[in-house]
Request: fold
Amino acid sequence: MTTKGKLIVLAAFVKNDDGELVPAFDPRQVDTEARARQDAILLGGKYAGVVAWSREADPAIGEYGPPVIIYQRGEIPDLE
Reply:
């Protein structure tokens, strides 16, 4: 049985007192790219940065593809 699929994530960032970007909340896994984009657009004006991204993933063997940005607004740190 394979668990390979697409991992879709929404994340937002704020600046701390030192001006560094830090997560506003734990990254959220989203069911579809369309939903991730819609949620990111809605959050866009509330945070220093918002990003929705996806990657091919097979968590069973720890294999993850490169992140692909679906939507970005503002400042975000480098995606790993």
About this structure: The mean pLDDT is 91. The radius of gyration is 13 Å. The longest strand covers residues 5-15.
